[in-house]
Specification:
single chain
Length: about 200
Amino acid sequence: MYIDGTGHMEGEGCEHVFASSNELAQSTRHASAFHQHQTIEEHFAFWDDNKYACIKHFLRNHYREALTSIETLTAELSILKDTLGLTDVDFIQFHSQERLYLDNLKEPPPKEILHIRYVQVLRELAESEWELAREAANQALTTIAAGDLSRILAALSQARIRIDSGYAKLQNTEALTAHMEIQLGIEEHWEIKGKVAAVQF
């Protein structure tokens, strides 16, 4: 942004090249590897030759557009300066202020990051594996025939491991939620279909 010499260019030159190459998909989809490479190379070779042949028109047209823009925008800027009582120094200051503002937007404020993380933790709490583990444990023996002791022991062992793991994750998430609620001064955390006003963004 605000790079000297770029003018009004959108900076998407590469996108135009790749967008045109999308048309090659239909003709190369069922071709052999050799013909695929051949088609792609010919496409980009033609693109280069075509752009080189048209470069004089490109430069001439853009030079004319630049002259017209300079003349038009200079006149409009003079009117704005007279109307608003601005000077060239003011525009430099505006530019510096905007750059500073945009630089500060690269990272959200710490409190906002904490709010976002709090919502993520609440989602993790709502999607806890604890209930799924309990349900799986309750259904662990329903598909095992009575008397098959080895399969019963294996199913119980797997259910216990899953319950222990789910419960540990639940405890960790609850502890993290409580810690963040203390930091944010939240007395009652947000719940699904509940009021979200507790979190002040």
